[in-house]
Design a protein that fits this description.
Blueprint (H helix, E strand, L loop, with lengths): L1 E4 L2 E4 L6 H8 L1 H9 L2 E4 L5 E2 L10 E6 L11
Parallel strand pairs: 1-5
Antiparallel strand pairs: 1-2, 3-4, 3-5
Helix pairs in contact: 1-2
Length: about 80
């Protein structure tokens, strides 16, 4: 089945979950989702758990969390 990740079409097997689709698209991005440095939303910008099932035509967006560097005394 075809799903879309960050506007790119990705072919995955029926029954694939979010994690599997991200892995098929970009294994490094899937590792970031697994580590918590990125998260996945659906077409409505609702965050999805990695184990959520997908259906044909699902639209996913992977959002990389911003990491702030700087001095220890910054809030």
């Amino acid at each position: 089945m075809r799903v879309f990740i960050n506007a790119e079409p990705v072919e995955v097997d029926a029954g694939t979950d979010v994690r599997g689709a991200i892995r098929a698209h970009d294994p490094e991005l899937e590792a970031r989702v697994a580590s918590g440095s990125a998260y996945v939303t659906d077409a409505r910008a609702i965050e999805l758990p990695p184990e959520a099932g997908l259906s044909e035509g699902a639209i996913l967006r992977v959002v990389v969390r911003a990491r702030r560097g700087g001095r220890a005394d910054e809030c």
